[in-house]
Amino acid sequence: MSKKVGLFIFLLAVYFASNSEYSVFALLSESESENKSQQKVVELTKTYTPQLWTDFKVLDITPELCSLKGKDILESLSFKSIRSNLKYDKAKYTYGKFNNNQASITCAKLENSTFVYTSVAGPDAEIVERLRNEIVQKL
Q1: What H or E segment, with its residue span, contains residue 125?
Q2: What residue ranges in 1-100 does DSSP mark as E strands?
Q3: FRET label pair with 84: which of 13, 47, 104, 139, CA 20 to 30 Å apart?
Q4: CB under 8 Å to 109, separation ≥6 — which residues?
């Protein structure tokens, strides 16, 4: 009985696979020229070499407070699209964008303090350095 049911299911699967426009048989019988005509070529151009400036501090505050302070700092410097991620146990993150620049402030818990890692990236080294220095100074 189970062999008959298995055979019936197999024949049913073969029937639907052969009658579908997306069947294995239809995909295998497509010509290579049709496949090539459907492919799109995307060209990526490099507009600038990004600059990355980093710094760190050890603060006597909690990682949660550090992340909130980082958010306030980024807001005071007119950063947009500021996001904070407070769901991880060991580290809290704050990110923001300023024109073509991006900054992140990571606050990781140490035994009795918080390790703060700040990074700023963008196209212009002078602006990136200045933003990094302002963020670290305000921390």
Answers
A1: helix 125-138
A2: 51-59, 80-85, 91-98
A3: 47
A4: 62, 63, 89, 90, 91, 115
